[in-house]
Write a structure and sequence with these properties.
This protein has 466 residues and is an alpha/beta fold. It is built from 17 helices and 17 strands. The chain has a domain of 287 residues: Metal-dependent hydrolases (TIM Barrel), CATH 3.20.20. The strands form two sheets. Strands 1, 2, 3, 4, 5, 14, 15, 16 and 17 form a nine-stranded mixed beta sheet that branches. It has an eight-stranded parallel beta sheet with strand order 6-7-8-9-10-11-12-13. Bound molecules: zinc ion. Zinc ion (ZN) binds next to loops.
Length: 466
């Protein structure tokens, strides 16, 4: 039982319950209401949420988890240079690196209130293992990247299908899968169609980058005579189970097609802002009733996985862009980071809101903080005032995975140390080549960083990881 809580339910009426309680049995919410209504229950485990706010776990709609190891390696470079830099390092990324990076990502997400995420990357098996170890929930897609090499594309497709067949609906449903064609500029029309066919045959959807960069739009126009959405639509790819990351360059007609085909969007404002990209027409997509969730993108381009920060960024970006404070109000942003995100992942029946019969994916945010006082208007405080580090307790699939900021499923200090070592090893392996004169090759002088990190670890251990 969670007792004495203020509960943001994110149900269809957006109800907020004061002095409320939630009863969890197994992995399910079996009752929710006022403390008066919960009086009839006698439970053996009680979480007292006095002065705290309880809400559905946040859903990160688009990330590349293992890229936590790339945090800070390709900053302040234009988007067009970013991919070659990342690919030059990525060629050294083995399964072991992906496991370390994924564990680091799970740790960061749990500590900032994310309970479920949609991932598209390589060595997805290792991300699945990290999900298993951490107790998180995820929609995982093994990436498919052709890059003018059809043999590679087909091989990636086979691996993506093999992964999905093995892991879809595994771990009591904590892992579901899609196939992960990277984008229209890295996958040929034939490969995209083959991927669609394969997805249909095993009954999973697709997770793909769409209309992300100006160059993609130019290429779509030149090679296929239309927009990215036109191209995908004409190939028969859009079938209601497609999670489309970014959708920056989508015109009014594209938005009509997206609505008609029930294509969902993962909006990642920070990564697009950091590239100096244009602004995705999110209010316009929402006006068309397109489902839009929020994602952080990978740490090579954000550079963190904090969904509370991402919610605020999304709200501020579109208010400023539209010069209208009423655009994307707090309650709507919270829906995007929970129930609408769940819809994009195909999980809205089981997660995304706190209601009887749903899975117990719940976060508890400590409001006994200066920046969250006075206590009132909780949805607004969460979007405009809170930090990821205010998340106190996390429950996923009915299991406590963090209590009073102590992660119970993972060894936090060990993961930080291993991730640092993996990063050092990646640097030794080299591979970095910058193709921009304005952004010369960084020196990677990390001795100072390593020393200060080791000091930080020692101090943290003394403080018992607080
Ligand atoms: Zn991405």
């Amino acid at each position: 039982m969670i007792k004495n809580a203020t509960i943001i339910t994110v149900n269809s009426k957006n109800e907020v319950i004061s002095d409320g309680g939630i009863i969890i049995e197994g992995n399910e919410i079996i009752d929710i209401g006022t403390m008066e209504q919960m009086k009839k229950y006698f439970t053996d485990e009680v979480v007292d949420a006095e002065g705290m706010v309880v809400m559905p776990g946040l859903i990160n709609s688009h990330t590349h988890l293992a890229m936590t190891l790339f945090r800070g390696v390709a900053d302040d470079v234009p988007g067009i240079n970013w991919l070659p830099i990342i690919w030059s390092i990525e060629k050294n990324i083995s399964a072991d690196f992906c496991h370390v990076g994924s564990l680091l990502g799970c740790l960061e997400m749990i500590k900032t209130g994310t309970t479920c995420f949609a991932d598209q990357y390589w060595h997805m098996e290792k991300t699945a293992e990290a999900v298993q170890e951490s107790g998180m929930r995820a929609n995982l897609s093994q990436g498919i990247l052709e890059l003018n090499d059809p043999n590679k594309g087909e091989k990636d497709l086979v691996e993506s299908v093999t992964f999905a067949k093995k892991w879809n609906n595994s771990l009591d449903g904590r892992i579901v899968c899609k196939l992960g064609p990277h984008s229209i500029y890295t996958c040929s029309p034939t490969l995209l169609q083959n991927t669609r066919e394969a997805a249909d045959s095993i009954n999973v959807g697709l997770h793909i980058h769409v209309a992300e960069a100006p160059n993609e739009s130019k290429m779509a126009k030149k090679s296929h005579g239309g927009t990215s959405i036109d191209h995908l639509n004409s190939l028969g790819i859009l079938k209601g189970d497609v999670l489309a990351a970014h959708c920056v360059f989508v015109n009014d007609r594209d938005r009509e097609i997206m609505k008609r085909t029930n294509t969902s969007v993962a909006h990642c404002p920070s990564s697009m802002m950091k590239y100096g990209n244009e602004i995705a027409p999110i209010p316009e997509l929402i006006d068309k009733n397109v489902v839009v969730g929020i994602g952080t993108d990978g740490c090579g381009s954000n550079n963190n996985l904090d969904m509370i920060e991402e919610m605020r960024t999304a709200a501020f970006l579109h208010k400023m862009n539209k010069k209208d404070a009423t655009v994307l109000p707090a309650h709507q942003i919270i829906r995007m980071a929970t129930i609408l995100g769940a819809q994009g992942l195909g999980l809205e029946k089981s997660i995304g809101s706190l209601e009887i019969g749903k899975k117990a994916d719940i976060i508890i945010i400590n409001f006994k903080k200066p920046h969250l006082t006075p206590f009132h208007n909780c949805p607004s405080h969460i979007v405009y005032s809170a930090f990821g580090s205010d998340v106190d307790t996390v429950i996923i699939d009915g299991t406590l995975v963090m209590k009073n900021r102590q992660v119970l499923t993972l060894d936090e200090m060990k993961i930080l140390e291993t991730a640092q070592q993996a990063f050092e090893k990646l640097l030794e392996m080299g591979g970095y080549t910058s193709n921009s004169e304005k952004n010369p090759k960084p020196s990677f002088k990390t001795n100072l960083i390593v020393k200060s990190f080791q000091t930080y670890l020692k101090i943290s251990q003394k403080l018992k990881g607080g």
